[in-house]
Amino acid sequence: MAMMISRYRICLALLFSLVVGILGLQAQTRPPITLEVDATQAPQQIIHTHMVIPVSPGPLALYYPKWIPGEHAPDGPITNLVGLKFSANGKMIPWQRDLLDMFTFHLDVPQGVSSLDVRFDYVEPAETSGFSAGASATDKLVVISWNQNLLYPAGHSAQDLIFKPTLKLPEGWKFGTALPVAHQDGDAVEFKPVSMNRLVDSPVSSGEYYRVVDVTPPGEPIHHEIDLAADSEAALDMSPELQQDYTNLVAETGKLFGSRHYRDYHFLLTLSDHVAHFGLEHHESDDSRVGEFSLIDAQQSVYMGMLLPHEFVHSWNGKFRRPKDLSPPYYEQPMKTDMLWTYEGLTEYLGYLLTARSGLWTPEQYRENLALIAARFGPGRPGRTWRPLLDTATSAQFLYFAPDGWTNWRRGVDFYDEGVLLWLEVNSVIDQQTHGKKSLDDFCRLFYGGPNDGPQLKTYTFQDLVDALNKIAPYDWADFLHKRLDGTSPEAPLGGIEGSGWEVIYTSVEPALLRTSEEIHDSLDESYSIGLLLKDDGTVEDSIVTKPAYKAGISPEMKVIAVNGRQFTPQVLRLALKAGITSKEPLRLLVLNDGYYKTCTMDYHGGELFPHLVRESGQPDLLDQILKPLATH
Ligand SMILES: [Zn+2]
After folding, report:
1. Helix ranges, 239-332 (H)
2. What's the gap in Å between 171 CA and the centre of ligand 1?
3. How far is residue 579 from each of residues 367, 573, 585, 607, measured CA to CA in Å?
4. pTM of the full predicted structure?
5. From the CA of 313, how far away is ligand 1's center (Å)?
6. Is the pLDDT of residue 632 over 90?
7. Tell me: the pLDDT tens digits for 571-597?
8. What is the 3-state secondary structure (H, E, C) of 52-78?
């Protein structure tokens, strides 16, 4: 588009107006849009919206947000928008949906009309998949993601549209949000006028059972709190030890980045078995949702240990600094997601580090997790032989929603976990090149530091990243990164682990973290032995292409009924694998496939196998160095 215009030697001013016209964005100030969201019927799974939008007579296009920031996909829940009605001066105005874009509504504003009344409902889905578009309301709580409850006029950037939002809550419910409150009258809350991008980036959690936990470290000038909403009073009982660990987390980020870029920070943590479970980053808050008893069950609180560190890191990596192509000016413009190996991959790397540095995990748990990550990429994992890391990022918009079956061959959103290995290798290269004087921590202070001007966005490109890395340690970073991003191999990329003085080995001892994960998910992981991931009832979640079970004819969605003639339970399979080490008999699995039974036989005698990290003798222990807390606590 820019090349076509430049051929006509148009003066700069005209060129500018043309570009603005083509983008359809107008920067002039408009009167604010009034948005009233009525969540008083949240327990009944329905949220009402009433908007007053300043308009001019003539054709008008209104959008429902489509590309949701942080979800990296066009997954705005348009299906749940119902009861849409427009009126002005007491008269209904007809509308039409765009034939090509389901998120666009067209109407003709009559002469003499200067403000448009918009009413619709958002009906809450029951499905617990689909991130913020999944179930978000229960009898006792609700999370309001504003993008679900508003329309906005075409032709403006989200930064230039000003909203005046109000929210009505069920009687007696408390709430938490990063939005500054202008006025509160009982259950009606009026927020200060706010730009649309800040509004959409600032969800509200609310509930009958609600507790605010202060996690501001001593001496820290910026306020941090965890806002807990739960389906029961008992679930809110966070221990003082856990509160201390999360306070440590805040202190550790201050040391790691050397700067913050928000006014205050709210961890919005929702505890319910009836909402979607995920974490979604925002600049001054995060929307994290886990099982009801995640805080009071010791195993579950360890398992969720890395969730809040990951989402918190996004305030710097993802919100303050964001790849340019992941920062479109409004929500209908598609995102290019190829840089997610930094946006998500580096966040995952730093999130795990902070989980250990803050005490939420021990160094041993960190290493157990790192071994499990490495093992998911090889040896004997086929996905990396055809789909390079970069394509998992480019394909994020459908890989997030892909089924579990065949993940080992299709690949999933591997830019998270393979990103951990990649950034660990970047850290070890920095260590080698600077003879131990610098680490990725120095990169973090350089790239994410600077003054705190509130929630600002500073975009970057691949080249900006390479330039910043070069300032920490001169190296051919572009070549290094391209090789890691574009290469294919049946082997896991272990340069970071080996460069940190460790290697991956396989033994019959199951890591405690994996056992915890199996108990939480009612599953059994035999992917490193016969190559099966199973549910506790025998249903095959994935069958690793190249491994014995796949070769014997077992695929995802089949069901293991019996092991060597005995009814399947996880324990029966474990014992059979153990007995197989000293037996000459093959392993026989009776499998149900689309109503037919078949016996799958494999000559496997390796027993159960699980990955672990062990020290490489003679190498300095770089993991030990990077896991040490930076703050005193
Ligand atoms: Zn993330």
Report:
1. 240-257, 298-303, 307-313
2. 34
3. 29, 10, 10, 8
4. 0.94
5. 8
6. no
7. 999 999 999 999 999 999 999 999 999
8. EEECCCEEEEEECCCCECCCCECCCCH
